[in-house]
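Box 3.1. Reading complex inputs
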Amino acid sequence: MKKLIAILFFPALLTSCLQDTVIRKVTYFKPVYKTTEQARADIKTASPTALSAPGKIFYRNGFLFLNEMYRGIHIIDARNINAPKNVAFIKIPGSVDLAVRGNTLYADMYTDLVALDISDPLRVKPTHFESGVFPENYYQGFWRGDSGKIATDWQRVDTTIREQDYGWFTKEFAVADGGFRQTMSNSAGGGVSNGIGGSMARFALSRDRLYTVSWSDLRVFNTAIPEKPSYIKEIRIQNGTIETIFPYNNFLFLGSMTGMYVFDATDKDNPVQKSKFEHARVCDPVIADGNLAYVTLRSGNECVGFTNQLEVVDITEVARPKLLKTYPMTNPHGLAKDGHMLLICDGRDGLRILDATDPNNVKPVSVLKGFESFDVIALGGIAVVSAKDGLHFVNYINPANPFITHSFMIND
Amino acid sequence: MTKSVPAILCLLFCSLMGFAQQQSFKPWGALDAGLLTGSSGPALDVRLQGGVAKKGWKWGIGGGYDAYRFASVPLYAQARKYLGTGGSRLILLGSLGASIPAVQPPSQGVIFDDIWYSPVREQRYHTGLYAEAGAGVSFFAKKKLGLELTLLYNRKTMKETFIQQVYNGSDGNEEAENWNKYRMNRLVLRLGVRI
């Protein structure tokens, strides 16, 4: 009988064999590091590459500068707007934002601001690095860079691992929504003209100053000598949640998740907050034109909230902005205005064109569907639309019947 | 596939019975229920098996429902050896077959056992292996009816496939076709009724 009991309970002794196990095929991206000096030395015009993750766009003198998120900037020759050509790529690791003043392009390179001479867009060269001015970019995509080195590329790794299956395991490195943030500004000054950008910018040029925003800061750079920008100061914004900046006249309109801030930049080195127009907690790019500001509010993903609409705000009295009217939208992102026409990137609905002649009665004119749009700049009859699937050039000379004239598709 | 298991079992069982009658084998059947314990906690299973017997050996096929972690329908072939004589006999047995997922995840879901809350799509469970070996005793055995208590080491496997969004370190997500191969090792205490 003892033998029988021993046989019956022998498997119970093998407790380690009773653990569930799992072999996982996992995918992750591993950073490829270079020293800062090596990465800076690599900044030069290179052969054009396919779009992968198009970001913010800037237009200057017939050339479009399109950010490739965290990798660099595509140069698109749009002198013939009906037949644009992808002509070059500038490798700038960690780059998300950009702005152009005269022949100088400003971009972020992780924590640094880099100024590039683009007088010959096909032979771009850096002229100045302003180090450590964007400290919030030290942490990038959950990775902490090795001190003295920066991530210049990311290598995909597919591998398998075997583990005891306790249910807790770092399989990938995040589930970001992959949403785009576009940019631009449009304000000239100091005898050197500035380029045209989109409404989702975090860099804005006004007169001879470059203003940048981070989550809770407004920073001022002197660009009087365009090729050698210098950091002036940082203005802390309480409860900021800042996302975008748009310069108009001597004012700076900052879109945040809780409202629109208006800063008076008459004293260009010391912008002063004049007002805050509050709204529900959502994302809100903003543009201004005349006595009106146009704010798109969208919900979803990092934007939380439940509001998707266009708000028209009377800014006749900048210190006391007043809501004129709201218009329901699907999931509006960037916007641009050309005369009375308002062009709105309405997420999956594509590009929405509205007649804003009467701000109290903004009328729908047309919707161009077929792509998920994020930001737009209007170039007098041609809209350059950054979308999830690529970059589209949309002819809206007849606003009632817009059509795509050219596209640069992702990985094409 | 899961819905057709009873039909397949009936067909095989009838074939075995027919074979038994022609070849002078004795038919047998057993219904059992088990308590499965492993690192994912306790669970129950129920199984029905039957086949032919001769000279202390029993061969058969079986199927049932296994509620451990990923519910499944095991479909297997089984061999038993009875040692000794009388009403209480020692049993050695083993089974080998397939573990068919009884349920499928929603077409779009989340891999929960992940430090990141990963949304996935086209998530599927696939048929895996089902195997066990162990020993037991039969008691209260009458000529046709009897009880059997067995203790077995049991393993079922399952492959889960899915398409996943993986953060690419810089500008967003990329899709990856990934999989998990689960191996579930359990100790099973099973009480059966010989019929």
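In summary: Confidence is low (pLDDT under 50) at residues 141-146, 166-191 of chain A.
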